[in-house]
Amino acid sequence: MKTNQTNSSLQAPPLWQQLLGVHIILSQMQNGKPMSSSMELVSVHLRPGVQALSYAVLRHYASAQLAFRLLASRNPPKELANFLIISLALLIQDSKNRLTDQAHLQFYQTHTLVDQTIEALKRKAGPKAQTGFLNACLRSFLREESAIMHQINQDDSSIWNCPTWWIDRLQNDHPHQWQAILEQNQIKAPLTLRVNLKKTTLAQYKAQLEQHSIAFTQIGPIAIALADPLPVERIPGFMQGQVSVQDAGAQWAVDCLLDACTLTQDSIILDACAAPGGKTAHLLESSSAQVIAVEMDAQRAERIISTLSRLELSAKVMIADASYTKSWWSQANNEQQFDAILLDAPCSASGIVRRHPDILWQRREQDIASLVKQQAHLLKTLWPLLKEGGKLLYCTCSVFKAEGSDQIEQFLRKYKDAIYLSSPGHVMPKSLSVPQESKNTSESDIKIENLKYPPLDQDGFFYAILEKKSS
Ligand SMILES: C[S@@+](CC[C@H](N)C(=O)[O-])C[C@H]1O[C@@H](n2cnc3c(N)ncnc32)[C@H](O)[C@@H]1O
Known about the structure:
This protein is α/β, with parallel strands linked by helices. It is 46% helix and 14% strand. The protein folds into two domains: 12-161, Orthogonal Bundle (N-utilizing Substance Protein B Homolog, Chain A), CATH 1.10.940; 246-468, Vaccinia Virus protein VP39 (Rossmann fold), CATH 3.40.50. It has helices at residues 2-10, 15-30, 35-38, 47-58, 61-71, 78-99, 110-125, 131-143, 145-152, 156-160, 164-173, 178-185, 202-211, 248-260, 278-286, 298-311, 329-333, 359-362, 365-382, 405-414, and strands spanning 191-195, 216-220, 223-226, 243-245, 268-271, 290-295, 316-319, 338-344, 386-396, 418-427, 461-468. It has a seven-stranded mixed β-sheet, sandwiched between helices. α15 links the parallel β5 and β6 (290-295). α2 packs across α4, α2 crosses α7 (110-125) and α6 (78-99) packs parallel to α8. The relative contact order is 0.10. The site of S-adenosylmethionine has 18 residues, from α15 and β6.
């Protein structure tokens, strides 16, 4: 009896429950909410399944929207439309897997998916649920699958699973690399760790992973990509602060800044847009300087504090609009200028789509101009806070030039006391799972142990280091 109870509690929840969870994620995304925060609205026991299904849906979202337009004879209520989009995306994924001999990746049988989507709609909409409409559209898809897939394969937005304005912008910004960027956006990013050299050594940590039979690849000076993702509680040494989760490209920021500076324990670094604190912690792990972290979102600022406490590090964390310097500068540092500034500015996040596919559908074209304005304002207001001879690292996790090279060119035109130092500039997303010969970079045979830059697998970023001229 006891054994039966244990077995049943381990059983996966029914698919309709998970589809209801995916429906929440999709509706929230359409209202501009990121998946990372809307997942909190889903019951904990459903989250792993809902996350996997949501990723699958988001990676076929454009194709599902096209199929929806081809199949739906009328405009159904939003709730119903979203169930149709979810199931179409999953059917399209199966169809693509079959074509590429990956049928074994199918989550469930087709008829189960159709039945369970109808069940989920009934549970959500009650007796008035238009199950007949949903059933008819899904059956039509199955009947006309090859013709619909043919149309999907002709449509740019569906081919790249990307809004057309985004494709146009990439074509314009990176005429030789836009396809490679869009290809990378389809590939799931690995879970990457940053080893905390204040707590362990790289060799010791690698040995620890080996002892636990956890497969990994070292992809940067202190960056380790796990072959399979693990919940943080199961990552050896995570709770003890030996490692943090951080993309290898994101780790490059602190390397670039510290490499350009000569800092002592009396130096003060401003981390201007700091939450959730990945770079704040990396700065403290890699240098003896003091760090002041400023973040305007109080809830996100709490994450800096919890990260630092897990790592047993300390920084002055301030909740303020970094660009409104009057509100925090005197309290932070008695209006003394900083030796270095890290400005990880708010941006479109167009470089981290492989990790967060919801960004593609949450972001609107008109957001870019307003983000560019915010970034310019942060640069303008923080520049006077840097000492002469000090260095400022401007970075964004964006591959759009407006938020990277164009932004910095404009800044350099206005600020004659700013010198552009050798910097990585735009760094494109790049995956380890792409065969070496097809990578559009030349560093595939670099020796990792001696490597300072760049990583072997990374999200997309922009990095510029500016020095303030001495008068
Ligand atoms: C790209 S994230 C920073 C990531 C962080 N540096 C890390 O490595 O973990 C940008 C952060 O800037 C914050 N932010 C945006 N505008 C800000 C402002 N004017 N002042 C302070 N923080 C701001 C956002 O709330 C967000 O947490």
